[in-house]
Structures are given as C-alpha cells and as structure tokens.
Amino acid sequence: MPSVVPKHTLFPELTRDSLLAFQFSSWYPRFASLSIKSSIIRPLSQDFRDYLDSDGVFVPEGAEDVPAESTLSDEDEDNTGVSSEEEDEDEGPRYAFPELDARIRDAVAVYGAVFPKLNFSSPRDAAWMLPASSPLKCTSPADVYLLLKSSDFVQHDLDQSQVFEGCEPETSEGGPSDYQLELVLRKWYPVDRSRELRCFVRQEVLLGVSQRDPNHYEFWCESNTQNKVLEAVTKFWETHIKGKWQQANGDYVFDVLLTRDLSRAHIVDFNPFAPRTDPLLFTYDELLTLLFARGMPELRVVDSPHHPAATRNAPAHQHNMIPLEAFTMSSGRDVGEFADLLREEVQKSMEDDDS
Fold first, then answer.
1. CA gap 216, 301 in Å, rounded
2. Which one of 181, 191, 289, 336 has the largest count of C-beta atoms within 10 Å of its C-beta?
3. Which residue spans within the chain are E strands per DSSP?
4. Between vectors from CA 297 to CA 294 and to CA 301, what angle results, nearest 5°?
C-alpha cells in the first residue's frame, strides 16, 4: 500500500529500484495488451553504447538497405604500398552491428515500420531528420541509428549519473551493473497528437490530466467533450492501472492516446512522478494541492488560441536542427572533412553568384 504523504512533500522518494520500474522493459510486459506493439532488444553491446556516445552523426556499416557501391581492390593501394584500408584505420573507430541490423529488419518486417526509443527516452527531438509527413517512421536500421545519433534526449539514457540523478543513496549492494541499455522498437503509425494526454497519479490518486501537445484544437473547447474525456480516462485508469502496479508505489505519470471517438485509450508510456517529468499545463505545486483536496481529477487543455501554452509557434526542439543539405554533406565524414567540403560548397556558391 502507498505510504502516507508527509505535509508539503512535493515529490515522493525516488530510489534506484523505483526509477528502474519506469524503464520500458519493466512496465511493458504487464501492460502490453493496453499499449502499442513493441519489441525489446537487451542488453545492448558496449560497442553500440560507444557508437551512440561517439562524435558526429553517421550510420554503421551495413545498416542501409542498399548494396555497397564499391569493394576494396589492389588498385586501392597507392605508390607507397599502403592500402586505403590501412589508412582508414587512422580515421577513428568504425562500427557495424549485423546482428542488431537483422533484429531491426525483423521488427520492420512484422510491424511495417517502427519508431525507436531506449530505456526511458525517445529521439523525438530528432524527428526532423526523417520526412515530416511521417515523423519518427523507420523502415531500415539506418533510420533507427540516424534518429538515435541525432538526438540529445537519448543521451540521458547513456549516462548513469543522469539516469539516477535525484535518486536516494542505495542501502543495498545494488550498483551500476543493474542498469542495462535497451533498444525498443515500437510499431509506427500516424498519431493524432491532439488526442495525447498526460495523467498524474500520486498515492494512487488520479490528480490531473493534461493535454500534451501545446497547440489549440477547437474540439477541446467543448465542455461536453472535456467531461467525456475525463470520464473515459478515469474509467480506463481505475479498470486497468490502479492498484495493478506495485513497483511504482502508487506514484507515477502515464501518457495515453485516446481513440478517435475519445471513449477509450492506449498506454503510450510511464514516467516517474519526479522533477524530470514535465508537468505540462500543471505545476507540481498545483498537483500537490489537488492531492490534499482529494477531489475529482482536473482536466487541463489549451482551450483558446490565446492560451499561454498556445503561443509557442517555433518548431519543437528547433535547437537540434541543422540544414538538411549540411547533414547530407556530412554523411560519412569526420569534422575536418565536413568543414573542408562546406568551405568548398560556400566558395562554389559565391562563384556561381558572380557568374
């Protein structure tokens, strides 16, 4: 049973074990029938971790679903007798993950397309790397690696000091070896972001429900719709989640995607009730007030074009974006080569302007 909340405690105690309950492989088996079809690959090799943590944006060898353009031959040796293969050894580590490539291709074959995430984080800040018409849609290992390598968000899962930041000191023998990096491949399909909601639960009490996408949608202005959605989410939580997940100790945040008729929901993710989880249209102080009130859960939506949350017109995660042309030129090159090529392109553009 959840413990009683001391007065003015904004967040529950977070231990390593309670945090690990929120990694995908911990909660998904229990709620798989209510969530998006997914495949979990774990543990991942140290080489793959090193690849994700390496500088630059590039895909491993063999990850693209195209045949190699050329092969090494004796003609690749220069007059010094040193082969280009030997020269490449000085350019830094090369990566290839044929077994992982095969498992990703298997998932794509089953699901049609996938979108990836690691234990906790998804590369949604890198969605712009793939076509805007189908964000995060991956149909090859190269697509998966490209999103992961381009994302700042997934870096959180690579650094255990960040993963366990804010956790209480361990009193047992548990250590960093308890944490294993995992790759999650979820079935991709178009998502109507207007139907995504984040729900806040403390001491097994549903406190609030917030619209996730900060854009204004006209249908959210209708009071009947709001009442219908709040009733549907409350019923879903009481039927399928409440009291059925002891590892979370009654404190958690869950994201859902409503069905088109707004009457049912699918679980998208779980997050800890902690500062690292965005409270969206609430503040954690407001959620604490709702906890002590012990009333009905509150629904908050962007109910007007003039709502403060609806004024964010800049593209999401724009700080991560670079021109597509620049990324195309950088493919397969280190920083020095890319800089040289970029200078050549700039010079060529200037010459074209003068002609």
1. 8
2. 181
3. 38-41, 114-117, 183-187, 196-202, 205-211, 252-258, 265-271, 298-300
4. 145
Phi, psi of 185 (to 5 degrees): -115, 110
Eight-class DSSP state of 190: -
Amino acid type, 178: D
Helical segments of 250-334, H only: 284-293, 324-330
Peptide bond before residue 6 is cis, with ω within 30 degrees of 0: no
Tell me the pLDDT tens digit for each residue of 151-191: 999 999 999 999 999 998 876 555 555 899 999 999 999 99
Q: What is the DSSP string of 62-73?
A: T-SSS--S----
Rg (the chain; Cα; Å): 24
Return the DSSP state at 320. G
* DSSP 8-class letter at 208: E
- Report the distance separating Cα 295 and Cα 207, nearest Å: 8
- φ and ψ at residue 269, rounded to 5 degrees: -165, 165
On whether the CB atoms of residues 342 and 326 are closer than 8 A, the answer is yes
Q: What is the pLDDT of residues 99-148, one digit of tens each?
A: 999 999 999 999 999 999 999 999 999 988 888 888 899 999 999 999 99
pLDDT digits (tens, 9 = 90+) for 208-259: 999 999 999 999 999 999 999 999 999 999 999 999 999 999 999 999 999 9
How far are the Cα atoms of 9, 278, 318 from residue 274, in angstroms, in the given order? 12, 9, 25
Residue 160 near residue 177 (C-beta atoms within 8 A): no
Other Cβ atoms less than 10 A from the Cβ of 5: the count is 17
